[in-house]
Amino acid sequence: MTRAKRKIEADLKLVDLVIELLDARAPSATQNPDIRRLSKGKQRLILLNKSDLADGDVTSAWISRFRDEGAACIALDSRKRDSIDQIRKATESLAKEKRERDLKRGISGPRPVKAMICGIPNVGKSTFINSMLGKASAKTGNRPGVTKGNQWININNELLLLDTPGVLWPRFDDEKTAESLAEIGAINDDVVNLEDLSVQLLDLLLKYYPDLLFERYQIPKEEYLKKTEELENSQGSVLGVKYGPLAMLDLIAEKRGAIKKGSLPDYARASRIVIDDFRSGRIGRISLERP
User: Fold this and answer.
1) Would you say 268 and 194 are in contact if contact means Cβ atoms under 8 Å apart?
2) Do 204 and 80 lie in a common domain?
3) Any alpha helices (H) in the chain, and if so which ranges?
4) Residue pair 270/251 in contact by the 8 Å Cβ criterion
5) What is the tens place of the pLDDT at every residue in 80-103?
6) What order do you get walking across the sheet with 113-118 strand by strand?
7) Partners of 62 in the beta sheet?
8) How far apart are CA 143 and CA 152, in angstroms?
9) Are 138 and 262 in a shared domain?
């Protein structure tokens, strides 16, 4: 991780533009503060990828935030052609600015814009690059860490992309950042307690997207309130315990047949159902963070 960060810092001297790919569902958690610090003084283009999975209104608010900070920002689904066309227009505009600066410095003749593309693991960099190229040249995978080393990729005569491995920073600012990264799959599921993670996710969904949740699992609100009350009465009031998400996980296990011997809820299976449904967008368009 430290070695990769040093390499990125050295390579930044070679580029005119930094393109940072973030997950539209969690832009703050997926923005590496080291990249933001190291790229200071460079032109920046922020791409909010997987915007088809995020809450559109919240994504619009993030775009305004990043533009207020002086960065160009575009929401995209890197698998779709119209999104890629938007990126091409943005990079062409930035290339024009660079050529004008070169002319003022006495540098004549067209030179390609050199751009570094950064992003944490599993944010969709390889899919984005392949879409820009129109072919599968960069390895892709639905798991963190597919890109292993830096590589220059010629997009066209005006843009050279320097791809970099996805790097997570050594220390998270807060627990919520780690939760968001785990929920979108940027942290390997093997090192995460999925049952705790699903309860935290359900807590957020009940706060901001309750109707989507009740609709997805066909749970009447009255049934949810009754189950919550039953848990509170049986367990007693415990400081810090939120019974709503626990009640919802119980009901999801029941509705989806995630039941173990003795008619007990299979929380491991129910948790996997919730997390998979969120990541795939089956629950609906959801944002984990607001600016």
Assistant:
1) yes
2) no
3) 2-11, 33-38, 56-68, 81-104, 125-133, 175-184, 194-208, 210-216, 221-235, 243-255, 267-280
4) no
5) 767 777 777 777 777 677 677 777
6) 72-75, 43-49, 17-23, 113-118, 159-163, 151-156
7) none
8) 22
9) no
Give the CA count within 13 Å in the CB-facing half-sphere of 41.
5
Identify the domain containing residue 40 by its residue range: 2-163
Q: In this structure, what CATH number is given to the domain that contains residue 32?
A: 3.40.50.300
Tokens of 276: 């998979």
Q: Is residue 126 part of a domain?
A: yes
Nearest CA to 162 out of 222, 113, 203, 122 is that of 113
Rg (CA), the chain: 22
> Within this chain, do residues 155 and 230 fall inside the same structural domain, yes or no?
no
Q: Position of tokens 């999104």?
A: 83
Q: What's the pLDDT tens digit per position in 193-228?
A: 999 999 999 999 999 999 999 999 999 999 999 999
In this structure, the strands spanning 72-75 and 259-260 are: unpaired
Total structural domains in the chain?
2
